[in-house]
Amino acid sequence: MLSTEIAVAKTHKYASRDSGDTAETVERPTGGVSVVLVDGQGSGAAAKSLSMMVSSKAVGLLKEGVRDGAVARGTHDFLHAYRHGRVSATLDIVSIDLVSSTLIVTRNSEAPYLVARAGAFQRIEGAASPVGLYRHTKPAIDQYPIEAGLMVVVFTDGIVNAGERHKGRFDPLGWVNNLDLTCRTAHDIADGLLAAAMAADQSRPNDDMTVVAATIVDSDQQQPIRTLRVSLPFKG
Fold this sequence. Notes:
- The protein is α+β, with helices and mostly antiparallel strands.
- It is 25% helix and 31% strand.
- The protein has five helices and ten strands; from the N terminus they run βββααββββββαααβ.
């Protein structure tokens, strides 16, 4: 039996109360699970409101059984019509689709993402404009057969731009490929990559940062058990 592990790690820009990044997980009505990651234009409360609005639209369409590419197009059309092409947001959808037995990565983002298929990670460059700006924007879509050892890591531009104000831009690909193979769980990757990017910004993130890691692993469970864990620090 195979099992998917998904982990999300995020933080907000230093000295900002709100994160303009939103990540949501949703079960697919035809089987499987999707993670929606949105980075709203700017930072702070306005960016948070924007990213929440965009993610809610995408999640609603996914719950209705709309295919990922159509979800991205519909979300773009909604934002473009609602805000008249004046604001933008990046949109990433990572889906474990049990109907097609594939992991689908649907993106409207210029940031790269990382993928490994039982080996070293490779960097896949961003190939689509953010949603909201241009009328005929389309998503970039990649599909990978579900198999043990498959790993996908997507992140917002706060990760890939980390460190540029200090000793040089952070290299996510180099970081994950230096991980010991036994430490490549979804949680290890998400938590570790976020921590390394924050360190590159000297623990004062210059932008909102979010990492989504999805892995496919062998499982010896006889009765499938689904789990969800959330950690949300806040001031009392």
